[in-house]
Amino acid sequence: MSEFLQQLLNGLSLGAIYALIALGYTMVYGVLRFINFAHGDVFMLGAFAGYFLAPKVAQVFPPGSIAGALVVLVTVMAICAGIGASIEYLAYRPLRRRPKLTVLITAIGVSLFIEFTCQHRLVFGASPRTFPELLANKTLHLGGLTLNTNQLVVIALTALLLGGLSFVVQRTKVGTAMRAVAFNEQAAALMGVNINRIITFTFALGSALAGAGGILFAMTYTKIEPLMGVQTGLKAFVAAVVGGIGNLPGAALGGLVLGVVETLAGGVQGLSNYRDGIAFAALILILLFRPAGLLGRAQIEKV
Amino acid sequence: MKLIFSRWAGATLAALALLLAGCGPATDTNVIKIGEYASLTGKEATFGQSSHNGTELAIDELNAAGGLLGKTLQLITEDNQSKAGESQTVVNKLIARDGVVAVLGEVASSRSLEAAPVCQNAKIPMISPSSTNPDVTKTGDYIFRVCFIDPFQGTVMADFAKKTLKVQNVAIFTDVKSDYSKGLAKFFKERHLANGGKVGAEFDFNGGDTDFKAQLTAIKATQPEAVFVPGYYTDVALICIQAKQLGLNVPLFGGDGWESDKLVEIGRDAVEGQHFSTHYHPDVGTPKSRQFVDAYKKRYNAAPDAMAALGYDSVMILADAIRRANAAEPAKIRDALAASKSFDAVTGMITMDANRDASKAAVILKVEGGKFKYLETVAP
User: What ipTM is given for this predicted complex?
Assistant: First the structure.
């Protein structure tokens, strides 16, 4: 029993990271009906930004302090927001009036461009690096369960960011504008919404979340490398689809489901090799019975 | 339409032929070209870099002493970025474009297995410095190695588990993406069971994964006395960290895939006190070994590890073969290599057996104070 609970806990903390990245995918999709495949790479850039920033911050704030970790997190989120907005401006905006497929393929191109540029030895190089310790990671024992303070930080921060995001989207003026653009771009423009600004903001916000995900991932697993965003990004994307793409709580739920299924499969002898396969198979099943995802609503496509 | 097509095809073929002619092996009579493919970057970068350092040192020493057969040695190195699929590409390039007479590489068995058929088909001798999976040299009669093989390494670690760690119930955690890991796990298990031990749990991971907690939690539930992890250092370091976080406080031990400074850099205190087997340690050895250690330290400002020593040895045994063959022709080099007997190498005496494998002793090291400390030598 305690093994099951431990696995559940492992799965939730892994799923929380997927959830955080999935939020970015789902938000961009919700507004633009477009999947930003470079999202996983912004996640990686966030981890590397933290890697280079942490020693500088440690000179001002004592290493391992909460203040220092927060400064790193917020700065990285800001950097990633800038990166996301630049990607949108340079790669996607010129293609705004082109077919959706063109933008999608461009997104894959941007993703590969970032991955392979970063692997060059003059940029980051292909070798894995060790992420510095941002917060002292303490191990807590609860009955038969062991959990780390990092796992708790990840889960808490994901919940916090999800709450913050929902607030921005549902309660603020810019959030209303985002929803208006998502509903009908032309009508929103006629109502005086600056479409370009809203789209840039959407990308910036999504990328900031990816940056936060990168920091949390690097804090938990300590190893970072230029291709770290590929597999994680793919899983987060699937999590977003399973939760119902375009739906914020759905993305979080999808991430958690994916993390838990993957972890439970990994804990079975003889199946551990297939943990990703089983997770993805479970997701196909979910989509068979709920094609719009767990929390998604089926939409009638305008033809 | 058909006419146009065939005209185009003709033009393309002509262009291709021109291109191929331009790419053909350049023949320079004053150099002997030796190819090397290594993981200079990527997941197993320290393996490739160490091995390359040893290789380069050997080539330069040979050239400083006047080269071979009156010719200079030219080393052409290609990086495969520790990636699957790359080795085949770069080795093809070494053979077809650069026209090398022999190929050196790799450390990781999966990548040696990838390049070996290329060398075998082209009839270019290949010497793997430190791939331990037995299948590597089974590819064909042009494939050699200068290190021991995993059936021996697995035996060494199973005996170590019994005699030194004194453990019965061992869990095995294998990297299913790596031929090295799968082979070593199999040979360890066979010997451990023959020794009267028990394998309580067998779990798999995919090299390059970051989350191992699911498997480690399940391993912990079987209450093993020790965990055998025949993986590579990056994965091993993360496994040690996560095992510690989950409170799985039993010895973890493995093979030569552990030997890298990165193991300590990533794993920090989680790898402290753990054991692994490897080929060589600079603290022990022959006068030849001491000579090598001095030269290596002088040049690279660091102590050599087993990969560096084996890289050095792979060049030296090749040079010896070229000398004995008295020709820099692949087929003659192959025959001379196969006849290598009691060659005095840094990592011990090398005699090529019928399978073109070297039969050599293993050493067991312990991580202590962030360094690898020599524990014992196990003879075959």
Answer: 0.87
